[in-house]
Specification:
- The complex is a heterodimer of chains A (about 120) and B (about 425).
- The N terminus of chain A is likely disordered.
- The termini of chain A are far apart.
- Chain A is mainly alpha-helical and about 120 residues long.
- Chain A has one domain.
- The longest helix of chain A is centred in the last third of the chain and has 23 residues.
- Chain B is an alpha+beta fold.
- Helix content of chain B is about 25%, strand content about 25%.
- In chain B, helix 2 crosses helix 8 and helix 6 crosses helix 7.
- The chains are: A mainly alpha (about 120), B alpha+beta (about 425).
Protein backbone atom coordinates (compact mmCIF):
# COMPACT_ATOMS: atom_id res chain seq x y z
CA UNK A 1 0.00 0.00 0.00
CA UNK A 2 1.02 3.60 -0.39
CA UNK A 3 2.50 5.74 2.35
CA UNK A 4 -0.78 7.42 3.17
CA UNK A 5 -2.15 4.28 4.79
CA UNK A 6 -0.78 4.02 8.28
CA UNK A 7 -0.31 0.94 10.41
CA UNK A 8 -3.58 1.64 12.18
CA UNK A 9 -5.37 2.10 8.85
CA UNK A 10 -5.68 5.84 9.38
CA UNK A 11 -6.27 7.49 6.01
CA UNK A 12 -5.80 11.21 5.63
CA UNK A 13 -8.55 13.03 3.74
CA UNK A 14 -8.21 13.01 -0.04
CA UNK A 15 -5.70 15.56 -1.22
CA UNK A 16 -3.64 15.42 1.97
CA UNK A 17 -1.84 12.14 1.37
CA UNK A 18 1.45 14.02 1.12
CA UNK A 19 1.23 14.86 4.84
CA UNK A 20 1.42 11.19 5.88
CA UNK A 21 5.16 11.41 6.67
CA UNK A 22 4.32 14.03 9.33
CA UNK A 23 1.99 11.80 11.30
CA UNK A 24 4.46 11.36 14.15
CA UNK A 25 3.00 14.73 15.13
CA UNK A 26 -0.58 13.36 15.13
CA UNK A 27 -0.88 13.82 18.88
CA UNK A 28 -4.23 14.52 20.54
CA UNK A 29 -3.19 16.34 23.72
CA UNK A 30 -1.18 19.47 24.48
CA UNK A 31 1.03 17.46 26.85
CA UNK A 32 1.95 15.01 24.08
CA UNK A 33 2.57 17.77 21.57
CA UNK A 34 4.71 19.68 24.07
CA UNK A 35 6.68 16.52 24.92
CA UNK A 36 7.30 16.05 21.21
CA UNK A 37 8.51 19.66 20.86
CA UNK A 38 10.75 19.43 23.90
CA UNK A 39 12.10 16.03 22.79
CA UNK A 40 12.85 17.06 19.21
CA UNK A 41 15.87 18.79 17.74
CA UNK A 42 15.42 22.19 16.13
CA UNK A 43 16.14 20.52 12.79
CA UNK A 44 13.27 18.07 13.29
CA UNK A 45 10.93 20.83 14.38
CA UNK A 46 11.91 23.04 11.49
CA UNK A 47 11.41 20.18 9.02
CA UNK A 48 7.84 19.70 10.28
CA UNK A 49 7.19 23.44 10.12
CA UNK A 50 8.55 23.78 6.59
CA UNK A 51 6.57 20.77 5.40
CA UNK A 52 3.18 21.74 6.79
CA UNK A 53 3.16 25.53 6.58
CA UNK A 54 2.74 25.69 2.78
CA UNK A 55 -0.19 23.27 3.12
CA UNK A 56 -1.96 25.13 5.92
CA UNK A 57 -4.31 27.15 3.71
CA UNK A 58 -5.65 23.91 2.25
CA UNK A 59 -5.67 22.21 5.66
CA UNK A 60 -7.61 25.09 7.20
CA UNK A 61 -10.04 25.21 4.28
CA UNK A 62 -10.75 21.56 5.03
CA UNK A 63 -10.95 22.04 8.81
CA UNK A 64 -13.27 25.03 8.42
CA UNK A 65 -15.78 22.60 6.98
CA UNK A 66 -15.39 20.08 9.80
CA UNK A 67 -17.69 20.39 12.79
CA UNK A 68 -15.80 20.36 16.08
CA UNK A 69 -17.20 17.20 17.65
CA UNK A 70 -15.84 14.19 19.51
CA UNK A 71 -16.76 11.86 16.66
CA UNK A 72 -14.82 13.69 13.97
CA UNK A 73 -13.64 11.36 11.21
CA UNK A 74 -10.13 10.09 12.05
CA UNK A 75 -8.55 11.61 8.96
CA UNK A 76 -9.81 15.10 9.76
CA UNK A 77 -8.91 14.59 13.43
CA UNK A 78 -5.36 13.77 12.34
CA UNK A 79 -5.22 16.93 10.22
CA UNK A 80 -6.45 18.91 13.21
CA UNK A 81 -3.82 17.33 15.46
CA UNK A 82 -1.10 18.20 12.95
CA UNK A 83 -2.39 21.78 12.94
CA UNK A 84 -2.35 21.87 16.74
CA UNK A 85 1.21 20.53 16.65
CA UNK A 86 2.10 23.42 14.34
CA UNK A 87 0.74 25.77 17.02
CA UNK A 88 2.90 24.03 19.60
CA UNK A 89 6.13 24.37 17.64
CA UNK A 90 5.39 27.73 15.97
CA UNK A 91 6.89 29.78 18.83
CA UNK A 92 9.99 27.56 18.81
CA UNK A 93 10.51 28.35 15.11
CA UNK A 94 9.19 31.90 14.87
CA UNK A 95 10.04 33.47 18.22
CA UNK A 96 12.52 31.46 20.28
CA UNK A 97 14.66 29.66 17.68
CA UNK A 98 14.99 26.74 20.08
CA UNK A 99 12.64 23.95 21.23
CA UNK A 100 12.86 24.77 24.94
CA UNK A 101 12.74 28.39 26.04
CA UNK A 102 16.09 29.21 27.58
CA UNK A 103 15.98 31.45 30.64
CA UNK A 104 12.46 30.11 31.16
CA UNK A 105 10.41 28.33 33.79
CA UNK A 106 10.41 24.52 33.54
CA UNK A 107 7.41 23.93 31.24
CA UNK A 108 6.68 20.61 32.92
CA UNK A 109 5.80 22.49 36.09
CA UNK A 110 2.65 23.80 34.41
CA UNK A 111 -0.26 21.40 34.59
CA UNK A 112 -2.20 22.18 31.43
CA UNK A 113 -5.78 21.09 30.93
CA UNK A 114 -9.10 21.68 29.24
CA UNK A 115 -12.28 22.54 31.03
CA UNK B 1 1.60 72.60 20.04
CA UNK B 2 4.34 70.25 19.10
CA UNK B 3 3.77 66.76 17.82
CA UNK B 4 5.12 65.38 21.08
CA UNK B 5 2.42 67.14 23.06
CA UNK B 6 -0.24 65.75 20.73
CA UNK B 7 1.02 62.24 21.31
CA UNK B 8 -0.67 60.81 24.41
CA UNK B 9 2.08 58.19 24.76
CA UNK B 10 4.88 60.74 24.80
CA UNK B 11 3.53 63.14 27.38
CA UNK B 12 4.83 62.84 30.89
CA UNK B 13 1.45 62.68 32.54
CA UNK B 14 1.53 61.21 36.02
CA UNK B 15 -1.18 58.77 36.99
CA UNK B 16 0.25 58.91 40.49
CA UNK B 17 -0.96 62.53 40.77
CA UNK B 18 -4.49 61.17 41.07
CA UNK B 19 -3.63 59.04 44.10
CA UNK B 20 -1.62 61.24 46.45
CA UNK B 21 -2.48 58.96 49.37
CA UNK B 22 -0.24 56.28 47.85
CA UNK B 23 2.80 58.52 47.56
CA UNK B 24 5.67 58.05 45.13
CA UNK B 25 8.45 56.79 47.39
CA UNK B 26 10.26 53.50 46.86
CA UNK B 27 8.30 50.60 48.40
CA UNK B 28 9.57 48.18 51.02
CA UNK B 29 10.29 44.65 49.88
CA UNK B 30 9.45 43.26 53.30
CA UNK B 31 5.82 42.36 52.47
CA UNK B 32 7.20 40.01 49.81
CA UNK B 33 8.93 37.68 52.24
CA UNK B 34 7.97 38.52 55.83
CA UNK B 35 6.21 35.58 57.57
CA UNK B 36 4.67 38.08 60.00
CA UNK B 37 3.19 40.17 57.20
CA UNK B 38 1.93 37.02 55.53
CA UNK B 39 0.00 36.11 58.68
CA UNK B 40 -1.63 39.56 58.61
CA UNK B 41 -2.59 39.04 54.96
CA UNK B 42 -4.03 35.64 55.79
CA UNK B 43 -6.17 36.91 58.68
CA UNK B 44 -7.19 40.32 57.40
CA UNK B 45 -7.23 39.96 53.62
CA UNK B 46 -7.79 36.40 52.43
CA UNK B 47 -10.11 35.40 55.27
CA UNK B 48 -12.11 38.61 54.78
CA UNK B 49 -12.49 39.26 51.07
CA UNK B 50 -14.34 37.91 48.09
CA UNK B 51 -12.24 35.54 46.00
CA UNK B 52 -12.95 33.99 42.65
CA UNK B 53 -13.57 30.28 42.96
CA UNK B 54 -14.59 29.24 39.47
CA UNK B 55 -17.14 29.64 36.72
CA UNK B 56 -20.82 28.71 36.61
CA UNK B 57 -20.15 26.44 33.63
CA UNK B 58 -18.13 24.17 35.93
CA UNK B 59 -21.28 23.38 37.90
CA UNK B 60 -23.89 23.63 35.16
CA UNK B 61 -26.21 20.89 36.42
CA UNK B 62 -27.88 20.07 39.72
CA UNK B 63 -25.47 18.11 41.87
CA UNK B 64 -22.37 19.36 40.04
CA UNK B 65 -19.73 20.42 42.52
CA UNK B 66 -16.21 21.80 42.71
CA UNK B 67 -13.91 22.00 45.71
CA UNK B 68 -11.73 25.09 46.09
CA UNK B 69 -8.69 24.45 48.25
CA UNK B 70 -7.83 27.54 50.26
CA UNK B 71 -5.02 26.71 52.66
CA UNK B 72 -4.50 30.45 53.10
CA UNK B 73 -7.95 30.49 54.71
CA UNK B 74 -7.27 27.21 56.54
CA UNK B 75 -10.15 25.56 54.72
CA UNK B 76 -11.46 24.16 51.51
CA UNK B 77 -14.82 25.16 50.15
CA UNK B 78 -17.38 22.89 48.53
CA UNK B 79 -19.39 24.73 45.88
CA UNK B 80 -22.45 22.92 44.57
CA UNK B 81 -25.33 23.55 42.18
CA UNK B 82 -28.65 22.92 43.96
CA UNK B 83 -31.82 21.46 42.42
CA UNK B 84 -33.42 24.91 42.36
CA UNK B 85 -30.42 26.12 40.28
CA UNK B 86 -28.98 28.18 43.13
CA UNK B 87 -25.31 27.87 44.05
CA UNK B 88 -24.41 26.84 47.59
CA UNK B 89 -21.02 26.89 49.28
CA UNK B 90 -19.91 25.14 52.46
CA UNK B 91 -16.79 24.37 54.38
CA UNK B 92 -15.94 20.85 53.28
CA UNK B 93 -16.35 19.36 56.73
CA UNK B 94 -18.80 16.93 58.33
CA UNK B 95 -20.82 18.04 61.34
CA UNK B 96 -20.17 14.76 63.17
CA UNK B 97 -16.43 14.46 63.72
CA UNK B 98 -14.94 16.76 61.14
CA UNK B 99 -14.04 14.56 58.20
CA UNK B 100 -14.33 15.95 54.67
CA UNK B 101 -17.55 15.16 52.84
CA UNK B 102 -16.39 15.78 49.23
CA UNK B 103 -13.31 13.87 48.17
CA UNK B 104 -12.75 14.87 44.54
CA UNK B 105 -11.85 18.24 43.03
CA UNK B 106 -15.09 18.13 41.03
CA UNK B 107 -17.95 15.79 40.26
CA UNK B 108 -21.69 15.25 40.45
CA UNK B 109 -23.45 14.01 43.58
CA UNK B 110 -27.09 13.53 44.54
CA UNK B 111 -26.02 14.14 48.13
CA UNK B 112 -22.81 14.27 50.15
CA UNK B 113 -22.16 11.32 52.36
CA UNK B 114 -19.32 11.19 54.86
CA UNK B 115 -17.08 8.16 54.44
CA UNK B 116 -16.31 8.16 58.14
CA UNK B 117 -19.74 7.30 59.61
CA UNK B 118 -22.20 7.91 56.81
CA UNK B 119 -23.73 11.23 57.82
CA UNK B 120 -25.38 12.47 54.64
CA UNK B 121 -26.23 15.99 53.47
CA UNK B 122 -28.50 17.36 50.77
CA UNK B 123 -27.19 19.75 48.12
CA UNK B 124 -28.44 22.62 50.28
CA UNK B 125 -26.33 21.38 53.20
CA UNK B 126 -29.19 19.95 55.28
CA UNK B 127 -28.31 16.88 57.29
CA UNK B 128 -30.66 14.09 56.19
CA UNK B 129 -29.14 10.79 57.28
CA UNK B 130 -27.51 9.91 60.59
CA UNK B 131 -26.92 6.16 60.91
CA UNK B 132 -27.95 4.84 64.34
CA UNK B 133 -29.47 8.23 65.11
CA UNK B 134 -31.10 6.93 68.33
CA UNK B 135 -27.71 6.26 69.89
CA UNK B 136 -26.78 9.98 69.99
CA UNK B 137 -27.85 12.35 72.76
CA UNK B 138 -30.46 15.05 72.14
CA UNK B 139 -29.56 15.16 68.45
CA UNK B 140 -31.21 18.04 66.56
CA UNK B 141 -30.35 17.33 62.93
CA UNK B 142 -32.05 20.56 61.83
CA UNK B 143 -29.15 22.61 63.17
CA UNK B 144 -26.38 20.22 62.15
CA UNK B 145 -26.17 21.01 58.45
CA UNK B 146 -22.96 21.87 56.64
CA UNK B 147 -21.36 25.19 57.61
CA UNK B 148 -22.20 27.68 54.87
CA UNK B 149 -19.69 29.95 53.17
CA UNK B 150 -20.88 33.18 51.57
CA UNK B 151 -21.08 32.77 47.84
CA UNK B 152 -21.98 35.14 45.03
CA UNK B 153 -21.96 35.29 41.27
CA UNK B 154 -20.99 38.05 38.90
CA UNK B 155 -20.70 37.67 35.15
CA UNK B 156 -20.78 33.90 35.61
CA UNK B 157 -17.78 34.01 37.96
CA UNK B 158 -18.38 32.37 41.32
CA UNK B 159 -16.91 34.23 44.28
CA UNK B 160 -16.71 33.07 47.88
CA UNK B 161 -15.95 34.85 51.14
CA UNK B 162 -15.05 32.73 54.16
CA UNK B 163 -15.73 35.59 56.57
CA UNK B 164 -18.86 34.50 58.50
CA UNK B 165 -20.04 38.13 58.33
CA UNK B 166 -18.62 39.84 55.24
CA UNK B 167 -18.43 43.62 55.46
CA UNK B 168 -19.80 43.93 51.94
CA UNK B 169 -21.83 42.00 49.44
CA UNK B 170 -19.99 40.71 46.39
CA UNK B 171 -21.44 43.45 44.19
CA UNK B 172 -20.46 46.12 46.71
CA UNK B 173 -16.96 44.66 46.79
CA UNK B 174 -16.62 44.57 42.99
CA UNK B 175 -18.03 48.08 42.97
CA UNK B 176 -17.68 50.34 39.97
CA UNK B 177 -15.24 47.98 38.25
CA UNK B 178 -17.71 45.10 38.26
CA UNK B 179 -20.50 47.41 37.17
CA UNK B 180 -18.35 48.87 34.42
CA UNK B 181 -17.71 45.44 32.94
CA UNK B 182 -21.31 44.26 33.10
CA UNK B 183 -22.42 43.20 29.66
CA UNK B 184 -19.18 41.60 28.54
CA UNK B 185 -20.23 38.31 26.88
CA UNK B 186 -18.59 36.03 29.45
CA UNK B 187 -21.03 33.18 28.86
CA UNK B 188 -20.34 33.21 25.13
CA UNK B 189 -16.56 33.39 25.61
CA UNK B 190 -16.42 30.64 28.24
CA UNK B 191 -17.30 27.75 25.96
CA UNK B 192 -13.73 26.54 25.55
CA UNK B 193 -11.55 27.06 28.61
CA UNK B 194 -7.91 25.98 28.81
CA UNK B 195 -6.27 25.84 32.22
CA UNK B 196 -2.71 26.17 33.49
CA UNK B 197 -1.64 25.56 37.06
CA UNK B 198 1.67 25.59 38.86
CA UNK B 199 3.12 26.07 42.32
CA UNK B 200 5.68 28.83 42.05
CA UNK B 201 8.28 29.55 44.71
CA UNK B 202 7.46 33.19 45.23
CA UNK B 203 5.24 35.49 47.25
CA UNK B 204 1.77 35.88 45.74
CA UNK B 205 2.27 39.62 45.23
CA UNK B 206 5.49 39.07 43.33
CA UNK B 207 3.70 36.71 40.96
CA UNK B 208 0.88 39.22 40.59
CA UNK B 209 3.28 42.11 39.96
CA UNK B 210 4.73 40.31 36.97
CA UNK B 211 1.41 40.90 35.22
CA UNK B 212 0.66 44.41 36.48
CA UNK B 213 2.62 46.35 33.89
CA UNK B 214 3.76 45.95 30.30
CA UNK B 215 7.03 47.87 30.48
CA UNK B 216 8.84 44.55 31.01
CA UNK B 217 7.66 43.16 27.69
CA UNK B 218 10.35 44.61 25.37
CA UNK B 219 12.98 43.06 27.63
CA UNK B 220 11.67 39.93 29.32
CA UNK B 221 9.52 39.05 26.30
CA UNK B 222 11.95 40.34 23.68
CA UNK B 223 11.45 37.13 21.74
CA UNK B 224 7.74 36.38 22.31
CA UNK B 225 6.29 39.90 22.34
CA UNK B 226 8.96 42.13 20.85
CA UNK B 227 6.64 44.74 19.39
CA UNK B 228 3.15 43.94 20.67
CA UNK B 229 2.87 46.88 23.08
CA UNK B 230 5.42 49.27 21.64
CA UNK B 231 5.63 51.44 18.54
CA UNK B 232 7.33 54.53 17.21
CA UNK B 233 4.51 56.62 18.67
CA UNK B 234 4.58 54.71 21.96
CA UNK B 235 8.24 53.88 22.49
CA UNK B 236 7.89 53.14 26.20
CA UNK B 237 4.91 50.71 26.18
CA UNK B 238 2.68 53.23 27.92
CA UNK B 239 -0.86 52.30 28.80
CA UNK B 240 -3.70 54.00 26.95
CA UNK B 241 -5.29 54.66 30.29
CA UNK B 242 -5.04 53.31 33.83
CA UNK B 243 -7.04 53.86 36.99
CA UNK B 244 -7.65 52.62 40.49
CA UNK B 245 -11.32 51.70 40.93
CA UNK B 246 -12.30 51.01 44.53
CA UNK B 247 -10.12 48.16 45.79
CA UNK B 248 -9.23 47.24 42.25
CA UNK B 249 -7.30 48.48 39.23
CA UNK B 250 -7.91 48.60 35.51
CA UNK B 251 -5.99 49.62 32.41
CA UNK B 252 -6.51 49.76 28.69
CA UNK B 253 -3.52 48.29 26.93
CA UNK B 254 -1.97 49.80 23.86
CA UNK B 255 -1.53 47.45 20.94
CA UNK B 256 0.92 48.10 18.12
CA UNK B 257 -1.31 48.04 15.08
CA UNK B 258 1.79 47.90 12.87
CA UNK B 259 2.85 44.60 14.48
CA UNK B 260 3.49 42.05 11.74
CA UNK B 261 2.06 38.69 12.78
CA UNK B 262 4.17 35.62 12.20
CA UNK B 263 3.25 33.18 9.46
CA UNK B 264 1.37 30.86 11.81
CA UNK B 265 -0.23 33.77 13.67
CA UNK B 266 -1.62 34.94 10.34
CA UNK B 267 -3.23 31.54 9.82
CA UNK B 268 -4.66 31.67 13.33
CA UNK B 269 -6.00 35.22 12.91
CA UNK B 270 -7.98 34.03 9.94
CA UNK B 271 -9.98 31.55 11.97
CA UNK B 272 -10.72 33.05 15.35
CA UNK B 273 -9.48 34.85 18.37
CA UNK B 274 -5.93 35.24 19.58
CA UNK B 275 -4.62 37.14 22.56
CA UNK B 276 -2.60 39.60 20.55
CA UNK B 277 -4.88 39.84 17.57
CA UNK B 278 -8.09 39.78 19.52
CA UNK B 279 -10.17 39.48 16.42
CA UNK B 280 -13.10 37.19 15.94
CA UNK B 281 -13.81 35.25 12.81
CA UNK B 282 -16.95 37.28 12.30
CA UNK B 283 -15.08 40.46 13.15
CA UNK B 284 -17.10 41.49 16.17
CA UNK B 285 -17.70 39.60 19.37
CA UNK B 286 -18.71 42.78 21.09
CA UNK B 287 -20.13 45.55 19.02
CA UNK B 288 -18.45 48.79 20.06
CA UNK B 289 -21.91 50.18 20.67
CA UNK B 290 -22.63 47.38 23.13
CA UNK B 291 -19.21 47.23 24.77
CA UNK B 292 -19.30 47.57 28.55
CA UNK B 293 -18.37 51.08 29.70
CA UNK B 294 -15.02 49.98 31.14
CA UNK B 295 -13.84 48.11 28.06
CA UNK B 296 -11.67 50.61 26.17
CA UNK B 297 -13.40 53.52 27.92
CA UNK B 298 -11.40 56.15 26.04
CA UNK B 299 -12.45 54.65 22.71
CA UNK B 300 -8.84 54.41 21.61
CA UNK B 301 -8.10 53.05 18.17
CA UNK B 302 -4.90 51.56 19.59
CA UNK B 303 -6.71 49.31 22.09
CA UNK B 304 -5.55 45.71 22.37
CA UNK B 305 -7.04 44.48 25.63
CA UNK B 306 -8.44 45.49 28.96
CA UNK B 307 -6.59 44.50 32.11
CA UNK B 308 -8.62 44.24 35.32
CA UNK B 309 -6.97 43.39 38.62
CA UNK B 310 -9.49 42.51 41.28
CA UNK B 311 -7.96 42.77 44.72
CA UNK B 312 -6.42 40.73 46.13
CA UNK B 313 -5.32 38.50 43.29
CA UNK B 314 -7.76 37.84 40.46
CA UNK B 315 -6.82 39.05 36.98
CA UNK B 316 -9.42 39.34 34.28
CA UNK B 317 -8.07 40.44 30.90
CA UNK B 318 -10.64 41.07 28.20
CA UNK B 319 -10.10 41.15 24.48
CA UNK B 320 -12.64 41.52 21.75
CA UNK B 321 -13.81 37.93 21.68
CA UNK B 322 -11.77 36.06 24.27
CA UNK B 323 -10.45 36.61 27.76
CA UNK B 324 -7.85 35.22 30.10
CA UNK B 325 -7.48 35.07 33.85
CA UNK B 326 -4.82 34.63 36.46
CA UNK B 327 -5.37 33.87 40.10
CA UNK B 328 -2.68 33.77 42.75
CA UNK B 329 -3.56 31.92 45.93
CA UNK B 330 -0.82 32.05 48.57
CA UNK B 331 0.48 28.82 50.02
CA UNK B 332 3.03 30.56 52.22
CA UNK B 333 5.17 33.72 52.32
CA UNK B 334 7.21 32.44 49.37
CA UNK B 335 4.96 29.87 47.72
CA UNK B 336 1.94 30.51 45.51
CA UNK B 337 -0.62 28.47 43.64
CA UNK B 338 -0.76 30.18 40.25
CA UNK B 339 -3.84 29.30 38.24
CA UNK B 340 -4.61 30.68 34.78
CA UNK B 341 -7.22 30.21 32.10
CA UNK B 342 -7.55 31.24 28.48
CA UNK B 343 -11.17 31.33 27.46
CA UNK B 344 -12.88 31.33 24.07
CA UNK B 345 -16.23 30.68 22.45
CA UNK B 346 -17.01 27.02 21.87
CA UNK B 347 -15.27 26.24 18.58
CA UNK B 348 -17.81 25.23 15.99
CA UNK B 349 -15.25 24.16 13.39
CA UNK B 350 -11.91 22.39 13.64
CA UNK B 351 -10.30 25.48 12.11
CA UNK B 352 -11.48 27.60 15.04
CA UNK B 353 -10.00 25.03 17.40
CA UNK B 354 -6.65 25.50 15.61
CA UNK B 355 -6.85 29.25 16.08
CA UNK B 356 -7.50 28.88 19.80
CA UNK B 357 -4.57 26.50 20.19
CA UNK B 358 -2.20 29.08 18.76
CA UNK B 359 -3.30 31.59 21.37
CA UNK B 360 -3.17 28.94 24.12
CA UNK B 361 0.42 27.94 23.30
CA UNK B 362 1.64 31.54 23.04
CA UNK B 363 0.01 32.34 26.38
CA UNK B 364 1.84 29.42 28.03
CA UNK B 365 5.18 30.20 26.45
CA UNK B 366 4.94 33.80 27.63
CA UNK B 367 4.17 32.56 31.16
CA UNK B 368 7.26 30.35 30.93
CA UNK B 369 9.29 33.52 30.41
CA UNK B 370 7.57 35.21 33.36
CA UNK B 371 7.84 32.26 35.74
CA UNK B 372 11.61 32.17 35.67
CA UNK B 373 11.93 35.86 36.56
CA UNK B 374 9.45 35.54 39.39
CA UNK B 375 11.38 32.79 41.17
CA UNK B 376 14.74 34.45 40.54
CA UNK B 377 13.51 37.69 42.07
CA UNK B 378 12.09 35.91 45.11
CA UNK B 379 15.36 34.04 45.62
CA UNK B 380 17.36 37.26 45.51
CA UNK B 381 15.04 39.10 47.88
CA UNK B 382 16.37 36.78 50.58
CA UNK B 383 19.82 38.26 50.13
CA UNK B 384 18.58 41.40 51.85
CA UNK B 385 20.69 43.40 49.42
CA UNK B 386 17.68 45.39 48.22
CA UNK B 387 15.26 46.65 50.83
CA UNK B 388 13.14 48.64 48.39
CA UNK B 389 11.67 48.45 44.92
CA UNK B 390 11.83 51.61 42.81
CA UNK B 391 8.57 52.18 40.93
CA UNK B 392 7.85 54.41 37.98
CA UNK B 393 4.51 56.01 37.19
CA UNK B 394 3.30 53.14 34.99
CA UNK B 395 4.07 50.71 37.81
CA UNK B 396 1.20 52.29 39.74
CA UNK B 397 -0.67 49.00 40.17
CA UNK B 398 2.25 47.45 42.03
CA UNK B 399 2.16 50.35 44.46
CA UNK B 400 -1.63 50.22 44.64
CA UNK B 401 -1.59 46.48 45.42
CA UNK B 402 0.82 47.00 48.30
CA UNK B 403 -1.08 50.07 49.52
CA UNK B 404 -4.43 48.31 49.31
CA UNK B 405 -3.08 45.32 51.25
CA UNK B 406 -1.95 47.66 54.04
CA UNK B 407 -5.28 49.47 53.99
CA UNK B 408 -7.32 46.28 54.10
CA UNK B 409 -5.26 44.87 56.95
CA UNK B 410 -5.84 48.12 58.88
CA UNK B 411 -9.54 48.07 58.07
CA UNK B 412 -10.15 44.53 59.27
CA UNK B 413 -7.69 44.58 62.12
CA UNK B 414 -9.07 47.86 63.42
CA UNK B 415 -5.72 49.64 63.44
Amino acid sequence: MSDNVLPNDLVLPAGFEDLAPLLDWNLPTMDERQDCRVGSTMEEIDAFYQAILPRMDDVLDHLAGIEMTDDMDPGSAALLNLSLALCEIAPAVEQFFEPVISYGYDPKRFTQGVR
Amino acid sequence: MTAIEDNPYATNQRYHDRYPEMGTAPVSTEPYYSPEYFELEREYIFKKTWMNAGRVEEIANAGDFIVKELPVCDTEVLIVRDRDDSINAFHNVCSHRGNKIAYDASGNNRSFSCRFHGWTYKLNGELTVVPDEENYFDLDTSCLGLTPVHVGEWGGFIFINVDPEPRETLLEYLGDLGAGLDGYPFAETSGQVFTFETVVNANWKLVKDAFQEVCHTPYQHSRSLPDAFISDANPHTRFIDMAVVGYHARASLFGNMAHMPSAVAMKAYGHGSTIAGASMEDGEAISPALAPPLVNPTGSGDWSFELNVFFPSFFLALTNGSYFTHQFIPLGPDKTHWFSTTCYPTPTTAAQRFSQEYSRVMFRDIMIEDGRQIEETQAMLKSGAKKEFILKDEELFIRQGLWQADEMIKLHRGH
